[in-house]
Structures are given as structure tokens and as C-alpha cells.
Amino acid sequence: MKTDIPYNQLDAEGNKQGSSQRAQLCYRCLVALASVACVLLAAVAIYNFLTAPASSYHPALVSSGLQKKMESCSDPCKIVLVESIPEGLEFNSSSTNPSIFQAWISLMSEARSSVDIASFYWTLTNKDTSTQDPTASQGEEVLKRLAVLSGNLHVRIAVDSQEGKPQADLTLLENSGADIRKVDMRNLTSGVLHTKFWVVDKKHVYIGSANMDWRSLTQVKELGAVVYNCSCLAADLEKIFEAYWFVGGSQSIPSPWPSNFTTLYNKDTPLQLPLNSTPSSVYLSSSPPSFCATGRTPDLQSILSVMEDAESFIYIAVMNYLPTTEFTHPKRYWADIDTQLRRSAYEKKVRVRLLISCWQHSPPVMLPFLKSLASVHDSKNKLDIQVRLFVVPADPRQKKIPFARVNHNKYMVTDKVAYIGTSNWSGDYFLSTAGSALVVNQTDSQSAGPTVQSQLKDIFERDWHSAYSSPVTHNANLELFC
Ligand SMILES: *[C@@H]1O[C@H](CO)[C@@H](O)[C@H](O)[C@H]1NC(C)=O
Ligand SMILES: *[C@@H]1O[C@H](CO)[C@@H](O)[C@H](O)[C@H]1NC(C)=O
Ligand SMILES: *[C@@H]1O[C@H](CO)[C@@H](O)[C@H](O)[C@H]1NC(C)=O
Ligand SMILES: *[C@@H]1O[C@H](CO)[C@@H](O)[C@H](O)[C@H]1NC(C)=O
Ligand SMILES: *[C@@H]1O[C@H](CO)[C@@H](O)[C@H](O)[C@H]1NC(C)=O
Ligand SMILES: *[C@@H]1O[C@H](CO)[C@@H](O)[C@H](O)[C@H]1NC(C)=O
Predict the structure, then answer these.
(1) pLDDT confidence of residue 41
(2) 245 Cα nearest atom in ligand 4
(3) What distance in angstroms lies between residue 55's CA and the mean position of ligand 3's atoms?
(4) What is the pTM of this model?
(5) Which residues contact 108 (CB under 8 A, 6 or more apart)?
């Protein structure tokens, strides 16, 4: 990320079309006070700006209202890391964060005009999962409140159009007034819409690993971030939402994307804003690449660039980690991330830690590849990759809950940057599945308070050193582990 580009330059450099190129040229001339010719050109450009239809000048900016905000994002953005800690899990560490349930409730109570939710599937009630578990009450509460909001303000839901998933929650919301669009990712990319985020009043956002599933609030370990009072960031996440909405309407992926989906914020020119009063650079990445409009950093490039930037450590906590595709036929070897980890460990002596989930549905082929990574450990050669498996234990009652009791979080923290994502780490999630991530860089800040990076590192270390994680050793056996 280059952080030295001021908003007004970004503005000029974001311009691509004829009249805008003149504006860009002029911007520079004027700054240099170079010549009368330049001033004339400026007049022409200003004339063009005033007379051209808004959409032909800088559609992305004009139509989203970003033009003004880009000059300085002075929103009092407040970011909070939020977690779901499965019932019964206890940590020695003092690192405790507000719950995702609390975050969703507070987002709904802040909402005045709109709630947009990108989602994979909806099972917020016991009925949806054919269970009678008392811990479904939080999910049921969320659904009830969303139904009320759907009657009072504009609620839009983009959801994967998988067959065979329960529809009752969506039907209830639709009958209460919500607009719902199904995105047929299987047809479009052979993937799924796997993203999980909220945009409220075009001002507050939530992004993270939790599905719209009661288990994601009380029985599955999840991590996300909520950012309040941050319309600059919300406007950019809204563009990703609008992309799902657009595809949900047309059931086809535009190529190229219309210019109003363009973003100026990416790994090279991140959004500069205060987060908890700390100067920060931030951007949102998206996958698959066919869903990335001009300017958007694809999620894989985001992950690789965060890794390349690390100088002392890379800590990764993801549910699944595979240097392969999982769902293609035939299956493919896919080592982009794996290679970068080995390269960072070898060339820069970066300390690499992977905390991967282990449960009865873990793909068995994951273990040999994890052993292979873990074998890149040799103190003489300063190679330091370690891998651990995290197991969420279950009592007899909890064991009866299907697809629960697992560490489902998806994040990475380096000595520089915090990356909070929604994708499993195997090839499919970057090639065909829709996901997105928030990247927060506060390297330049001199702030004394905790940064997002330091908070995320605390969470990682809490889990890594907890009784729930154990090292992957040469003779480790998945069946004994999980
Ligand atoms: C974070 O910001 C620093 C300082 O501006 C920059 O050098 C670095 O490349 C950024 N890191 C990433 C991963 O974008
Ligand atoms: C996708 O949908 C189109 C239009 O409904 C249909 O003709 C096509 O067969 C579908 N493709 C796949 C791969 O399902
Ligand atoms: C957002 O800003 C409003 C108005 O300044 C303030 O009342 C509210 O507490 C803020 N929300 C959060 C979560 O900081
Ligand atoms: C861009 O414009 C189209 C057509 O008006 C609209 O459907 C779409 O939602 C807009 N995209 C964004 C990001 O606002
Ligand atoms: C991540 O991968 C697991 C195992 O393949 C899969 O069950 C799960 O659905 C994926 N994550 C989500 C929420 O799709
Ligand atoms: C807490 O610390 C004790 C003593 O060090 C250890 O035995 C126990 O496993 C730890 N519990 C967790 C959940 O990490």
C-alpha cells in the first residue's frame, strides 16, 4: 500500500475518460501555476464538468457521493473486533471482545434508513436446523428484530441461491417487507456466494466469518469487525453489495463492470481514515476476480501482498487450509498461498504460524499438506513455520448440533497489518467463490492505544496458546485429533 497519496490526487488519478484526463492534467498544471495555457485548459475541463452529464464525468464518484468525502474522510470511524465464542469455551487470557450477537443487535438499533446484508444461507432458528437447542435464542432474536426492521425501513438481502437450504427465514423477511435477491453463483462461476457482511444506513458496517446461522452466535467460533460511523468505508463496501445485487438481478456478470462500481481504494491506494482516532489506511478486497470492478484488489492479491509486506511474523487462523481446489472436477493443485508462505519463511526468515480447524468434517487431505508446511522448521537454517490444529470440544448435548463446534474464523495478522476475511483458504474461494475482506494498516500511527493489529495478535496468541490447540506433528492423525 502506498499511503502518501492525498485524496485530491487520488481523485485526479481515478479519472480515466477524456474530459477527466484533461482535468487531471489541469490539476497538475494549476498546482504548478505553470502557464496561462494551463488555466485555459482548466476552464475547458471545468466547463466540461459542468455541462457533461454526471455519468460521463466521473460516474463512480458523482453517483456515490464520494467525490466530497474523498478529499478528507473525517468520519469518526470506530472499529471493534467482535467474536463468537462457542458455549463452554474458556480462555485463560484476558483478551475478551464484544460478541457478534451484540454487534448485530447494536447495528439494528442504530439503523434508521437501510440495512443491506450479503449472506451465504439463513438458519437463524431451531426450526431451520431441526434442533431444540436453548442456545438458538440469540439467532431467533436477530431474526425477529430484522423482521420488524424490514417493515420499517429498507432491508435488502443478497443470498446464495443454493438449492436445499432452508428458506423459512428468508420467506419471513420477504413477507415482512425485505427485498431479497438470490445470486446463482453455481451457474455463474461454479462457486457460491460465501460473503458475510452488513452495511447499515450507508454508514456502519460489519464483516466477518459468521453466517446468518444461530450456531454462528453460540456454537461456532467466529471473528469479525464492526465499524461504526464510517460512511467512507461503508460507501465502498456498498459497491460490493451493489455488485451482488446487480448480478442477482441480471443473473449474469457484466464484463467490464459499469464504471459506477469502480473503486479508488485498493492495496496501492488505500482509503485514509481515522479508526478509533488512529490514522489508518484501509481497503476492501473481493473475490472472485470476475466480481472485481476497476480498482478493486482481488482477495488473493490482497492476501499475497499482506504476506509479502510482513517482516517478522505472519499469523493465520482459518478453518480450512489447502494448497488445492476442493470443489473442481478434476481437483487441482493450487499453491499460490502455500508458495508465498514458504518464500516468506525462507527469504525473509518470517515466523509463520497457522492455526487451522479440526472437526469431523475436515477434509482428510488437509493434514498431509499441513504436515508438509510444518516440516519447514529448522532452527539452524532459521526456518520457522509451525502449524497447530484447534479443536472446539463438545459435550453430549452439543455433539447433537449438526455442523457446529468448530473454529470458523478467517483472519491473518502480520507485524504490520490486520486482514479479516470471509473465505476458507483453498483455491476455490479465490477463483470462483464470492468473498470479501477488510485490510487495516496502522503501521504509520504512533498511537499509544491498541491498534487493530495488536488486538488481533492478542486473539491469535490467546487461541494458539490455549488448551484447545495442539501442534501438527509428523505422525499426527486427524481421527485422533478431532
Ligand atoms: C502498510 O503501510 C505502510 C506504510 O504506509 C506501507 O509501507 C505498507 O506497504 C503497508 N502494508 C500493506 C500490506 O499494505
Ligand atoms: C445457467 O443459467 C442459464 C439461464 O437460465 C441456463 O441456460 C444455463 O444452462 C445455466 N448453466 C448452468 C451451468 O447451470
Ligand atoms: C456514532 O455517532 C453518533 C453521532 O455522533 C453517536 O451518537 C454514536 O454514539 C456513534 N456511534 C458509535 C457506536 O460510536
Ligand atoms: C450503477 O448503476 C446501475 C444502473 O443504474 C445500478 O443498478 C447499480 O446499482 C449502480 N452501482 C452502484 C455501485 O451504485
Ligand atoms: C469452509 O469449508 C468447509 C469444509 O469444506 C465447508 O464445510 C464450509 O461450508 C466452508 N465454509 C463455508 C461457511 O462455506
Ligand atoms: C489455563 O492454564 C492452565 C495452567 O497453565 C492450563 O492447564 C489450562 O489448560 C489452560 N486453559 C486453557 C483453556 O487454555
Answers:
(1) 42
(2) 9
(3) 33
(4) 0.86
(5) 115, 142, 145, 146, 149, 200
